[in-house]
């Protein structure tokens, strides 16, 4: 079968099949278990699996799709990092995953859209960076934190709606997202990190909430045609990053 198993953990797959079915009864796919398996196109994961380790499918360059069962509670960093053919990822309605970890989907070049389940409260650093064809993402209603460089260099990202519970946008979170044109940030957001929207060169409109307490260094650097809309009573002079921006009260 090509599996190395320790207890109920699949620690290594050492064959080269294009389709793999993981045996029922295993509860964990271990760290780097399928690393560099370029022949892998499809994998069937049983409902018994509750945890998938870091870099489990790292550089599986021909893996085309993945469906999470509602039993999976935790996934590790870089789980699909550089899975360049990965075009479809499906989460169940009753998903239990609370974090999309760091580098989870980095450089997944075929991923054009994805819906993140409402169980997720944090999308960690670099989770989707360099997803060159990602056009839209549906963020979960319970999301509170977008980490550093989470969507950096997603050059084709055109649409994103921020949920009302969002509190923090990290450093470089959307840097070089060249096709973003208009954004409304939710009331309740308190922090925008350094270089958060750095060189979003086609961004022409962004609405900031009154709840902001920090706007990081050069958060809007390179947004040459940007108009920043703020609510009445918003003291733009508090924020050095807005010093040379076109700020309009409405």
Provide a concise account of the structure shown.
The protein is mostly beta strands and 250 residues long. The protein folds into two domains: 18-96, Leucine-rich repeat, LRR (right-handed beta-alpha superhelix), CATH 3.80.10.10; 98-250, Leucine-rich repeat, LRR (right-handed beta-alpha superhelix), CATH 3.80.10. The chain is 0% helix and 24% strand.
Question: Could you please describe the fold and organization of this structure?
Answer:
With 250 residues, the chain is an all-beta fold. It has two domains: 18-96, Leucine-rich repeat, LRR (right-handed beta-alpha superhelix), CATH 3.80.10.10; 98-250, Alpha-Beta Horseshoe (Leucine-rich repeat, LRR (right-handed beta-alpha superhelix)). The protein has no helices and 22 strands. The strands form six sheets. Strands 10-12-14-16-18-20 form a six-stranded parallel beta sheet, with no helix packed on it. Strand 1 (3-6) and strand 2 form a beta hairpin. It is elongated and about 65 Å long. It starts with a strand and ends with a strand.
């Amino acid at each position: 079968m090509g599996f190395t198993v320790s207890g109920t953990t699949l620690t290594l797959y050492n064959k080269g099949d294009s389709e793999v079915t993981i045996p029922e009864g295993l509860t964990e796919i271990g760290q780097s278990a399928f690393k560099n398996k370029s022949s892998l196109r499809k994998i069937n994961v049983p409902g018994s699996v509750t945890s998938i380790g870091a870099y489990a499918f790292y550089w599986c360059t021909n893996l085309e799709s993945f469906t999470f069962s509602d039993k999976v509670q935790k996934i590790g960093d870089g789980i699909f990092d550089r899975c360049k053919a990965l075009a479809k990822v499906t989460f169940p309605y009753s998903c239990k995953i609370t974090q999309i970890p760091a580098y989870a989907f980095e450089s997944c070049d075929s991923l054009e859209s994805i819906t993140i389940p409402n169980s997720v409260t944090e999308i960690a650093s670099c989770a989707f960076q360099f997803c060159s064809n990602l056009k839209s993402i549906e963020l979960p209603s319970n999301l509170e934190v977008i980490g550093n460089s989470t969507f950096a260099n997603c050059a084709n990202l055109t649409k994103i709606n921020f949920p009302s519970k969002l509190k923090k946008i990290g450093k470089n979170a959307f840097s070089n997202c060249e096709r973003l044109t208009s954004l409304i940030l939710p009331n309740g957001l308190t922090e925008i990190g350094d270089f958060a929207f750095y060189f979003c060169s086609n961004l022409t409109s962004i609405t900031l909430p009154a709840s902001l307490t920090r706007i990081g260094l050069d958060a809007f650097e390179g947004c040459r045609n940007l108009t920043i809309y703020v609510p009445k009573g918003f003291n733009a002079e508090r924020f050095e990053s807005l010093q040379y921006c076109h700020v309009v009260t409405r």
